[in-house]
Amino acid sequence: MSASLFISDLHLSDATPQIEQGLYRFLEENGDVNRLFLLGDIFEAWIGDDDDSALAQRFADVMKKLANRGTAIYFMRGNRDFLVGETYLKQFGAELLGDTARVSVAGAPALLMHGDLLCTDDVDYMSFRALAHNPDWQAEMLAKPLAERRELAKHLRAMSKEASSNKAEDIMDVNQDTVDNTMKEHQVSRLIHGHTHRPRRHAMQDAERVVLGDWTTTGWYLLERDETLELVEFEL
Ligand code: MN
After folding, report:
1. What would the pLDDT profile of 184-201 be if each residue is shown by its tens digit?
2. CA of 105 to the centre of ligand 1 (A)
3. Which of 90, 108, 197, 233 has the most CB atoms around it within 10 Å of its CB?
4. Is the dihedral of CA 226, 229, 234, 236 positive or negative?
């Protein structure tokens, strides 16, 4: 019997202790799985692996416990925690995934993404993304003192569509052509992503797009058990 969990968009920060606690409780009760996929925006912000925040440490400790119980952990970066690096993930033995990952899910190849790359109508964001994913920009960013990075992160967050950009109506939805082309390119009949905060299983012709939910007063997960898949919302 094999089981996998897929979660994304928890947006953990010091301002969300109830979501963090809810996650740890959830994993305590349901974390006995073969694979755990963390598909981006697990953290609301990330200024570098050298930021030894209490939150980052608590999260790593919980993940370490899971890993020790035999769960393989995979981490994909989102648009908010795009600076998470190998140094942090090594603490709990997680494997860093690229922007796309083709894995077997419920007996068929599926493509995993965070989802921001599918929102190609958001031209402003796409150009910011190109900048923020430039290795020179990242190196320059990570070379700044922590205090300065904290200020910059605050500033960036304020800039990116006021303070409320964690609401679905502020996030553009996916572009259907981009979805179709991406699935064709990777030759999959199932796409699993988060980011848009519009959790749903979309049936397509002989295919499916599963959108994970963001965690607020409720949490969301996708559970694979052998050949079955279930998208679940639960009270935190
Ligand atoms: Mn996102």
Report:
1. 999 999 999 999 999 999
2. 22
3. 197
4. positive
Domain assignment present for residue 84? The answer is: yes
Report yes or no on 137 lying in a domain.
Answer: no
Read off the pLDDT of residues 109-128 as tens digits, 9 standing for 90 and up.
999 999 999 999 999 999 99
CA–centroid distance, residue 95 to ligand 1 (Å):
19
Spacing, Cα 89 to ligand 1 middle (Å): 19
Measure 133 CA to ligand 1 centroid, in angstroms.
Answer: 15
CB distance 33 to 3 below 8 Å: yes
192, part of any domain: yes
Q: What is the CATH number of the domain that holds 64?
A: 3.60.21.10
Report the separation in Å between the CA atom of 68 and the middle of ligand 1, taken as the mean of its atom positions.
Answer: 29
User: What is the distance between the alpha carbons of residues 93 and 90, in angstroms, rounded to a whole number?
Assistant: 5
- Give the whole-angstrom CA distance, residue 110 versus residue 126: 24
Q: How far is the CA of 8 from the centre of ligand 1 (A)?
A: 8
Number of domains in the chain: 1
Ion ligand 1: residues, Cβ under 5 Å: 41, 78-79, 195
161: pLDDT confidence band, cut at 50, 70 and 90?
low
- Residues of the domain holding 43: 3-119+174-235
Candidates 183, 189, 184; CA nearest to 104 is: 189
What does the pLDDT average to over 198-205?
Answer: 96
Between the CA of 188 and the centroid of ligand 1 the distance, in Å, is: 22
CA–centroid distance, 140 to ligand 1, in Å, is: 23
